[in-house]
């Protein structure tokens, strides 16, 4: 997924602190390669205010670990584990007595393309089984797309039996199949596509509608490099940066220290200011 990064000018500029809101030019601007790189990243979205350039993975409290500790673990391992299935058939995987290996094939990592200034609205939702917290990582959407991520597929099932149809089709495909090896033997060409497709499918009903989450899913664990991260989300950015320095290996912290750490409580101007300062400092060191 990693792409070649643009050439940078050598120590040509240093950003001032947040209070000034300004950048001080000392000698040269960054090399033209940087501008070509940035334009390429944004060209498909430059005229679309309704689309985000980013995908965000938010963490949560899980199996005794807090959301911020899970974020620290993700940053340390450079991997977001696909721990669960989130699709229409997730409740059938157990009842159909699939092997653990086959069940894990339906696990996905979830992201949202909700604009950064609106992420807080995903966190403040009550009465949900999964309570997301204001901790996470921001990636470029086109990088995730290149790695195989797709928007979750929500089919309108209101007033229909489309959910029963999909589940019946699923049961028919997996009749007498409970292991991955058997699936590969039976569906030689399409075994991966079948699992991938069903891992993305959900239905919208009166009591079940999560389209507002603008969800994307990555099939299986998502591995990344620090250079792939756009920014980190933390409830208190300064405290989390200090925590990273204490808890993470020195080499990992040196990489993370170059990244913007933002809060979901910030507005548009605060986000732009923080991102700009960090980006310029990173490019000119």
Give a summary of the structure in a few sentences.
The chain has 285 residues and is of the alpha+beta class. Helices cover 36% and strands 16% of the residues.
Instruction: Tell me the span between the first and last alpha carbons.
Output: 25 Å
Question: What is the average per-residue confidence, as pLDDT, rounded to a whole number?
Answer: 82
Work out the oligomeric state of the chains in this entry. Answer: single chain
Strand content: 15-25%
Helix content: 25-40%
Spans where pLDDT lies below 50 across 5 or more residues: 5-30
| Tertiary shape | globular
Characterize the structure shown.
The chain has a domain at 54-223. Helix content is 36%, strand content 16%. It contains twelve helices and 13 strands. A four-stranded mixed sheet has the order 3-6-12-13. Strands 5-10-7 form a three-stranded antiparallel sheet, with no helix packed on it.
What keywords describe this structure?
285 residues; alpha+beta; four-stranded mixed β-sheet; three-stranded antiparallel β-sheet; globular
């Amino acid at each position: 997924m990693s792409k070649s990064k643009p050439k940078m000018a050598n120590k040509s500029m240093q950003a001032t602190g947040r209070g000034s809101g300004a950048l001080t030019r000392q000698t040269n601007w960054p090399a033209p390669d940087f501008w070509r790189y940035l334009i390429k990243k944004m060209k498909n979205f430059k005229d679309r205010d309704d689309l985000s350039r980013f995908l965000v993975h938010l963490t949560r409290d899980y199996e005794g670990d807090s959301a911020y500790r899970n974020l620290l673990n993700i940053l340390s391992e450079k991997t977001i584990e696909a721990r669960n299935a989130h699709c229409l058939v997730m409740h059938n995987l157990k009842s159909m007595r699939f092997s653990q290996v086959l069940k894990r094939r339906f696990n996905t990592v979830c992201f949202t393309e909700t604009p950064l200034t609106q992420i807080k609205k995903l966190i403040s939702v009550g009465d949900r089984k999964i309570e997301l917290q204001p901790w996470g990582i921001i990636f470029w959407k086109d990088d995730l797309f290149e790695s195989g991520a797709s928007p979750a597929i929500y089919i309108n099932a209101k007033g229909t039996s489309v959910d029963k149809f999909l589940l019946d089709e699923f049961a028919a495909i997996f009749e007498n199949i409970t292991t991955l090896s058997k699936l590969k033997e039976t569906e030689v060409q399409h075994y991966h596509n079948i699992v991938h497709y069903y891992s993305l499918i959900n239905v919208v009903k009166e009591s079940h509608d999560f389209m507002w989450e603008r969800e994307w899913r990555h099939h299986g664990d998502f591995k990344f490099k620090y250079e792939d991260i756009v920014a980190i989300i933390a409830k208190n950015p300064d405290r989390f940066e200090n925590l990273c320095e204490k808890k993470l290996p020195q080499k990992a912290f040196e990489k993370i220290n170059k990244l913007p750490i933002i809060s979901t409580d910030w507005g548009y101007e605060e986000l732009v200011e923080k991102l700009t300062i960090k980006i310029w400092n990173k490019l000119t060191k």
